[in-house]
Amino acid sequence: EAEQDIFGKAEHIDDAELALQGINMLLNNGFKESDELFRKYRTHSPLMSFGASFVSFLNAMMTFEEEKMQTACDDLRTTEKLCESDNVGVIETIRNKIKKSVSGSGVVVVDRLQRQIIVADCQVYLAVLSFIKQELASYIKGGWILRKAWKMYNKCHSDISQLQETCVRRCSSHEEDLSSDQANHNTPVEGAVTAEALDRLKGSVSFGYGLFHLCISMVPPHLLKIINLLGFPGDRLQGLSSLMYASESKDMKAPLATLALLWYHTVVLPFFALDGSDTQAGLEEAKAILQRKAVVYPNSSLFMFFKGRVQRLECQINSALVSFHDALELASDQREIQHVCLYEIGWCSMIEMNFEDAFRSFERLKNESRWSQCYYAYLTGVCQGAAGDLDGAKDVFKDVQKLFKRKNNQIEQFALKRAERLRKMSPTRELCILGVIEVLYLWKALPNCSSSKLQLMNQLLQSVDDASCRGLKNLLLGSIHKCHGNNKDAIQSFQLAARDEFGRQTNSYVQPYSCYELGCVLLAQPETVGKGRAFLLQAKEDYAGYDFENRLHVRIHSAMATLKEVVPQ
């Protein structure tokens, strides 16, 4: 009787629908409610168990707290075991009952595929948690876990696609002989698997499948060989179309696929794109997504955050600041989302040359965030110094050394070197402003600056006369000229920067970056494409061991790829 009661309750629960509701709750700032929902039903099905584990994983990713990361690992492994086990108590009983009442193997196929996808998802999240430890053994372990996950995604994607084709054929022609398809162990008997179930499963697998393609397509070229050896693909367009499919599906990961697309179009692409054309297309796509989803997520701090990102990239900095402040307010219970909003508020304030507001945002991040206090301390210091408080800035630069934790992290290494140098030199307001403009350049935020602010930066840079900063000053001036569309002056400044040997010790990245910038400007003119290509190759091959080398290699790779499309090699 108790068993019947459980089955009765379970029968009324559409776990796919419930899981989607749970994720939607999560995105509408109902973190607590979502967590409660998944925990309440976590033993009802592998899907609900996965939902609970995903919320746990998200918490770990947002805090980086050791305890939460361990909990997430345990939860994910529990879900994995549940999916791999044939004896799952209540779930198995329910499945057996369903099996008897529904035409046999269809449910089994859907269930098996669902479990395989969940296991692959769990593997990916476990690999991510492994990578966070930043130890060689963890990287190797993570790599192999990912390889296993990729094989599962690939197999499931292929099986589901075949099943969909079969389903379409079956619908269009009842007479068709399906005996050959039935030889495939994942293909059900006629009428057993609905098109709707397959669409949801395809959406489910497309999230991981698409993310794999997208992320691998952005890997620096020198790592690509290793990745290809592991058997990973990297097709950007395939990744985007899979994520788009997932985002329109009825699977619980549909909202996550939507967020992944927004992240790609508003964060990743602008950072790695060669020019504005790619970015512009991405922004239009992001705006369309935000418009479509506005009704579903009226209170979502994350969607408000992405709205701010779009506005920032469209140089509507004041509107972006309003959106980020709104998102900050909406995320009153979510410290981690508050932090990404504060980060953007800090950046928008730097773009506006409003150093005091930027200082306040970064100082709060330095004190509250667990991500990279060293980097936040450096940003706090340069903004504080740029605002005129040089004694305060000097104290903060001393903190950078204490907060330096991740020796292999290039951002922290850069922050440490810069802070040490400014501390020893006794910072001046001009040098701190130079530091602000430098990070705006390195993080590709100069194109978001208004013409008047760029003009102001130009004037402020002219007043920097420190010989060791001459190359950096010219690189930044060249970038400002480039933003103004003044290519002649840009080329001149980049050439001066590329020739600066004196500053090479303190600003090792200036020469390769200047060569790259020169190459990009020259590529834009048909008559100088050859010269442009030569500068890109020089940037790639003549320099090594400088700050943000990987970042530049990705950009050179992107520029070369564009060149191949335009000029066949």
Automatic annotation (TrEMBL):
The keyword Cell wall biogenesis/degradation does not apply. Keywords: TPR repeat. One of its GO terms (biological process) is cilium assembly. The keyword Iron-sulfur does not apply. Pfam families: Iml2-TPR_39. Belongs to the TTC39 family. This is Tetratricopeptide repeat domain 39C. It comes from Oncorhynchus mykiss.
